Amino acid sequence: MEYAKIRIGVIGTGIIGKAHLDQYAAIEGAEVVALCDINEQEARRVADKYGVAHVYTDYKDLLARDDIDAVDVCLHNNFHAPLTIAALQAGKHVYCEKPIAGSYYDGKAMVDAAKEYGKKLHIQLSTLYKKETKAAKALIDGGQLGKLFHARSNGFRRRGRPYVDGFGTAYFTKKASAGGGALLDMGVYHIAQMLYLLGETEVERVTGKLIQEMDMDEGRRAESGFDVEELALGFVTLRNGLTLDIFEAWAVNLGGVEGSSIMGSKGGIRLPSYHSGEMTSDITFHTTVADIDLDSKIDLNRMDIRWHRMRENEEAYDSSQKHWIAALQGRVELMPTAEIALATMLISEGLYLSDSLGREATAAEIVAASRSLSIPL
Fold it and tell me: 357 in helix, strand or coil?
């Protein structure tokens, strides 16, 4: 089947931009027609590698093209809102790297602009397309968990702080450039995954504690200006009494932590745990049948093969970008990633606010305290 061609402009040709270009190259119907980056030399080198015809150093020139359907924003957090809103105003759909923005205030402006201009806004939340997420969603939608009441969002690195532990850049280690540490870097994925599975994005109140107590190389500490958390802990109350607890570690003296989990009145799911990017446990389903407690493993690969054979457009849920292109082609409805990402940012800011206040913070307080961190273009 031949799919409609979707023409894309990518803004930002750094690590994230190149990763997105790799994805587009493998998606039928996706055509990157233009790149933009203030580093013209690098942008042209990347354009040559990926066969992109047009290169710009001013985003306005890219947005002025009338043959671009969608723009992919691959810049640092505090550029997300201004670039996204400008692209929406120019009549383009927008795909944006996570987190949605540097603050809830800016993320809300992006969501509002998408509604105002009638365009799609999609945020990169890769955990939503994992096989274990699909399996968990199928069990929940099939009523196998009964009434949901609690979820646990866990993320773990033994010693994986950017730059100070020997990889990545110091951009991630300063509040001024990154906004936060482990919570905004890794927690976004796990919290969003839990909100998606719970089917709830309305936050009522948040309690949080941010910690940096682990030793680190003093030279790298000084060079990096490290002033963000390496461990984030939180408790969230959502609408209808649903609750969520959070454990997100860049560095902690533990050999591992269990995977995230969802609990319901009839059953529960524990998602796989990961260590250094490698899966260290399977997804499991827990229930009681005939007064017998059952702990069941799920064969994700057999599930995935069958669903791809039997379900129309199943490949549209294989990755964030495949889903994005399929939605723009009109083959599937776009999942509410912008709303999920915005609620995730509200929770994240809530943890920071609660930690600074030394008490629980309500959603209204978090919204009122949020400020724009956008960098003027």
Answer: helix
Lookup: tokens for 337: 């990633």
Counting Cα atoms < 13 Å in the Cβ hemisphere of 302 gives 3
Give the global pTM. Answer: 0.94
Look up 49 and say whether it is catalytic. no
| The predicted structure's pLDDT at residue 32 | 98
pLDDT tens digits, residue range 315-371?
A: 999 999 999 999 999 999 999 999 999 999 999 999 999 999 999 999 999 999 999
Across 226-310, where does the E strand assignment appear?
Answer: 231-238, 243-249, 261-264, 267-270, 274-275, 278-279, 284-289, 292-297
Q: Tell me: the pLDDT tens digits for 177-198? A: 788 899 999 999 999 999 999 9
Peptide bond into 99 cis (omega under 30): yes
Q: What distance lies between CA 115 and its chain's CA centroid? A: 21
Q: Decide if 80 contacts 96 (C-beta within 8 A).
A: yes
- DSSP letter assigned to residue 184: I
Spans in the chain with pLDDT lower than 70: 1, 276
In the set 24, 56, 92, 98, the catalytic residue is 98
Mean pLDDT of the chain: 95
The single residue of 189, 196, 274, 317 carrying the catalytic annotation is 189
What tokens does 246 get?
């959070």
The encoded tokens of residue 311 equal: 């379900």
β-strand partners of 300? none
Q: Are 148 and 141 in contact (CB under 8 A)?
A: no
What is d(CA 180, CA 358) in angstroms, rounded to the nearest whole number? 18
| Burial of residue 232, with CB atoms counted within 10 A of its CB: 0-12 exposed, 13-18 middle, 19 or more buried | buried
Is 98 an active-site residue? yes
Tokens of 88: 């929406």
H or E element at residue 372: none
